[in-house]
Each structure stands twice: as C-alpha cells, then as structure tokens.
Amino acid sequence: MSVSEQLVLGGGNFGGIGSAPELFGHGESEDEAFAIMDAAWAAGVRWFDTADAYGGGRSERAIGRWIGATGNRPRLTTKTFNPMDAGRDHGLARDRILRQIETSLERLGVDRVDVYLAHEYDPDVPLTETIGAFEELVERSVVGAYGLSNFTADQVAAAADLGRPQLVQNEYSLLFRGDGTDVIPLCAERDIAYQAFSPLGGGWLTGKYRARQDFPAGSRMTLRPGPYKHLVHDRTFTALEGLQAEAAERDVEMPTLALAWVLSHPGVSAIVVGPRRPQHLEPALASVQLALTDEERRELTSLFP
Predict the structure, then answer these.
(1) Structurally, how many domains does the chain consist of?
(2) Is residue 227 one of the residues assigned to a domain?
C-alpha cells in the first residue's frame, strides 16, 4: 500500500492541543500548520483529519485557508462532540450535529466532507438519534460517509446494528493495545475501516521521554499529561530502551519501527499522524516501507508487558 492510503495527517495540534479549551491558541500557529500541510502534500499524503473543537475551530480554519490558498483538495475527516469553548454545549443530539456540520463546512471552505465522525460516545443521547442524524447527512450528500471515534467494541456494534458507519478511529499503539482484542476484529467482521490515532502513544514511542529526566518543554507530558501519567514507570522506560535497540538493529528510527508495528496489523487501514514540524513526517513516511513479519510483530509486542 502507499503513503496516500496508509497515512492521514492529523490536525489536532493546529491552533491548540486537541479539544482542551484551556490550550486553545497553543500548538502550531497557522504558518506552522501550513508548512506541515505543504510537506505532507508534497510527500503524497492525501487525507487530512481534524475536528470542530480542535483549537476551538482553529484547526478547521487553518486547513480551510490552506485549501483555499493552494487549490489542493485532500480527503477530509472532521468530527463533533466536544465543546467549542469552555462552558459551551457538547454532545451528539440531532440538532447539534446538524448545526455543527454547517459551521465545520464554513471553516473548511467546502460544501462537503468525506467522513464525519462522532468524536465520543454520548451516553445522554439515544444512539438511534445520533445515527439517524449522520444517516440524514449522508442522504443529503453533506458528508460522504460517517463513523465513530473513541467508541468501545459494544458501542461500535450497537451503532453498526442501527446504521452504516464506515470508519472507526481509535487510539492504538504498542502502549495502548486494547483495541487489538476487540474493536479491530469487530471492525474486520463488520467491514468497517479502522484508523489508529496516537500511534506513537502521545509521543512516548518517539524516544523523547527518558528515565529520571525532565520532560521536554512544550511536550504532551508538560501540557496535557493526564492520559499518560501511568506510563511514568521503570518498566515503561525499560521497554522503550528495548524498542530503541530493535530499531538500531534494523537501522531505522525508533518511531518508524513503532509506526510499522501498528501498520503491520492486518485490521488497521491507516494511521493518523500529528507531526509538530515538517521533519517529523519522516518516520511516518519510512514506516510505510518497513514490512514486519508476524514473528517480528510478536517480538516487539513482548517488549511491552
């Protein structure tokens, strides 16, 4: 498979750090985002991923301005669920979904997105209502397809029983392997594509975090450490040292090997990568060319108990 099929450029750091309102305005500036998108497009990446709440709309706006300035038209995924600012509404009620897609289209400067995702499961809205709204958008040709993000296997199954989700986008990496036992096999069974986001475990699999050293300024562990605090443990650093040794033996960068591990799963159709600088794309591009055998994949997995 090719770069255009297996790599998706994530815009989660354009104008913010994900959907965290307290970090809106941080992350990459619009000029920096443009440089990253230029580099990704030049390398053959043809699918860009964002969300309405990334940077409080700044990510979608940057992508839209880049499309307008360059005339390039990547496949586009955007998502909805999280509030656009502190104290604002959130969720997957029909009226909100229909409202949010219109504002996303406006920021992106397009009349249609290729894939629209539910960014989280909403326990406060009947799933029938949510799926019905997404189906309505497909029927109106406002979105090409819809899918789910951050859904459990049971939630994916329930949604697939009600409608036709075409994509699941969840976290999956050497450090977060839960989906490999349930969600990914379920997607294969239901003919739903699976994309892995955070395939480098929030930056942990790049090698930038080291035992008994301060976390780098501006890194995820200094800005939004919550989901990764449990990794600050000797066994994690030992596993990372093992991965670094395996990468050196293959004469590749550590993140390249970690990404190749994700792509080597037959149920993973693509990875969503969020480079902070254009040069950070290089390990992802190299990972597409690095084929791992089943035995090599098992050996790498065994490093992370």
Answers:
(1) 1
(2) no
